[in-house]
């Protein structure tokens, strides 16, 4: 599809230059020589409306700010408008942004700056269209965002297994979306008419966990004053989500194994066997094979749980998903009720792309939520993006690195990129300051940044 851009400027010469450049880039172009003509384009009955307007602020009749104000009255979302202001009129530019313009370009401009800004607008538009479409398709708040190849694989598996009753083990670091995947699985499964019952196996001591899972008979233990149904019973015809399954004691693991094998169990203190038809989804952020070797997890239970494995990759291994996730969270965490989503500057986005995300998607979501507040719902600048507790990140584990088969080169490259990233962070992203901090000259720093592919 070809986008149509309206160029609004009272100078014929400027319109000519812009038209030529934008036509070269493959856009359809139309022109307006006054503010009234721009308004006529938007308010007239003729469709389609322009996809984007490049608008001079100073025009005869209604000027650019008045056009923005008028359009603002009829829509509260961001306007598809990039304004052009004379160099040095920062306050006008800020006013235009407040009124909902997408960006501004100072005159005189380089053509390249114009085409890059235009391209950025359409990229951004494309992202938000996709988020809107995904939300509409899923019809719910719980949606899985991300289209990196690894996430595509995850979706395929979710789609394939949703209609079976196979047990699924979801693994991944903290905050990678294990619970979300379990929810999406349930919603798309043949069990979706039934309940989704969640149990956090790490939250309770052994006896309480067993009574929580299997229920108990009256008098089974001190305090069991009445019979109580367990989560497995409640999850009949639905899904039970066993979160942090790696934290179960060996004795509870044995009981769980029996449920998985025979689909029946007894309440604590009871003798009647109870049958259930329940889809089991388990999650863990532990490396279960390693736990098996250490004698903490039953191998037979592992195979029963791991019929279908869904492994969620850490966010730092799928950075290409970050822009779409950011768009999603900006949409989700509005500054006030009914306010338009906040927006993010290129500098802030670069910071997000460079971060290591030890807390994965949850950390990204929290970072965005915080940044929206810091920016008061306006444009998120680089210093609105903060990472509390960054100092206490993953320690360096040389023994583990060698055991994992990490080569010396890969290890050093990883260290170097973490070191440089932290230096840049402490230097407020100034390369000159960062170079001073770590005792190399800026030229070398630039070289190393390029080599470690961090920017
Ligand atoms: N792919 C994704 N798309 C959209 N939101 C996501 C995605 N992955 C995670 N989230 C969001 O990030 C937050 C953390 O996800 P979730 O609770 O599922 O992680 P988890 O793997 O269960 O973490 P933990 O191991 O700490 O329990 C949630 O708010 C979830 O909605
Ligand atoms: Mg979880």
Q: In CATH terms, what is the architecture of the largest domain?
A: 3-Layer(aba) Sandwich
Shape: elongated
* Share of residues in strands: 5-15%
Distance between the termini: 32 Å
Instruction: Give me the number of helical elements.
Output: 19
> Which fold name fills CATH's third level, the topology of the largest domain?
Rossmann fold
The biggest beta sheet is recorded as:
5 strands, parallel
Q: Using DSSP, what is the number of strands?
A: 16
The CATH homologous superfamily of the largest domain is termed P-loop containing nucleotide triphosphate hydrolases
Biggest sheet, strands in spatial order? 2-1-3-4-5
Q: What's the CATH C level of the largest domain?
A: Alpha Beta
Q: What gyration radius follows from the Cα positions, in whole Å? A: 28 Å
User: Percent range for helical residues?
Assistant: 40-55%
Report the uncertain regions: none
The average pLDDT is 87
- Identify the bound ligands: adenosine-5'-triphosphate, magnesium ion
Structural class: alpha/beta
How many domain units?
4
């Amino acid at each position: 599809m070809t986008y149509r851009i309206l160029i609004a400027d009272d100078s014929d010469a400027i319109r000519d230059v812009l038209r030529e450049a934008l036509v070269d880039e493959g856009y359809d172009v139309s022109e307006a020589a006054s503010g009234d003509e721009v308004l006529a384009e938007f308010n007239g009955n003729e469709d389609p409306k322009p996809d984007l307007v490049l608008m001079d602020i100073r025009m005869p009749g209604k000027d650019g700010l008045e056009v923005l104000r008028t359009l603002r009255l009829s829509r509260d979302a961001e306007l598809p408008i990039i304004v052009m202001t004379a160099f040095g009129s920062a306050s006008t530019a800020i006013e235009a942004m407040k009124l909902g313009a997408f960006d501004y370009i100072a005159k005189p401009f380089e053509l390249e700056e114009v085409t890059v800004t235009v391209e950025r607008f359409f990229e951004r538009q494309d992202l938000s269209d996709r988020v809107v479409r995904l939300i509409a398709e899923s019809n719910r708040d719980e949606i899985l965002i991300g289209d990196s190849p690894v996430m595509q694989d995850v979706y395929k598996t979710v789609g394939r297994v949703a209609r079976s009753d196979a047990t699924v083990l979801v693994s991944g670091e903290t905050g990678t979306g294990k619970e979300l995947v379990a929810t999406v699985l349930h919603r798309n499964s043949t069990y979706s008419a039934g309940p989704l019952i969640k149990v956090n196996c790490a939250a309770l001591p052994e006896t309480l966990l067993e009574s929580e899972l299997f229920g108990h008979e009256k008098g089974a233990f001190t305090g069991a004053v009445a019979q109580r149904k367990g989560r497995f019973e409640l999850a009949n015809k639905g899904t039970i989500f066993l979160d942090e399954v790696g934290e179960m004691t060996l004795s509870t693991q044995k009981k769980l194994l029996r449920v998985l094998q025979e689909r029946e169990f007894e309440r604590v203190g009871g003798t009647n066997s109870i049958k259930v038809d329940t889809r089991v989804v388990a999650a863990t952020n532990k490396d279960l094979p390693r736990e098996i070797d250490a004698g903490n997890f039953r191998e037979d239970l592992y195979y029963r749980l791991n019929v279908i494995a869904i492994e969620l990759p850490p966010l730092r291994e799928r950075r290409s998903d970050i822009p779409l996730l950011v768009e999603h969270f900006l949409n989700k965490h509005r500054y006030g009720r009914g306010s338009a989503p906040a927006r993010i500057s290129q500098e802030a986005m670069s910071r997000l792309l460079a971060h290591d995300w030890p807390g994965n998607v949850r950390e990204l979501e929290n970072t965005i939520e915080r940044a929206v507040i810091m920016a008061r719902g306006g444009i998120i600048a680089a210093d609105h993006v903060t990472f509390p507790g960054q100092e206490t990140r993953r320690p360096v584990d040389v023994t583990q690195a060698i055991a994992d088969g990490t080569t010396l080169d890969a290890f050093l490259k990883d260290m170097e990129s973490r070191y440089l990233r932290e230096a840049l962070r402490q230097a407020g992203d100034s390369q000159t300051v960062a170079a001073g901090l770590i005792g190399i000259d800026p030229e070398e720093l630039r070289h190393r940044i390029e080599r470690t592919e961090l920017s």
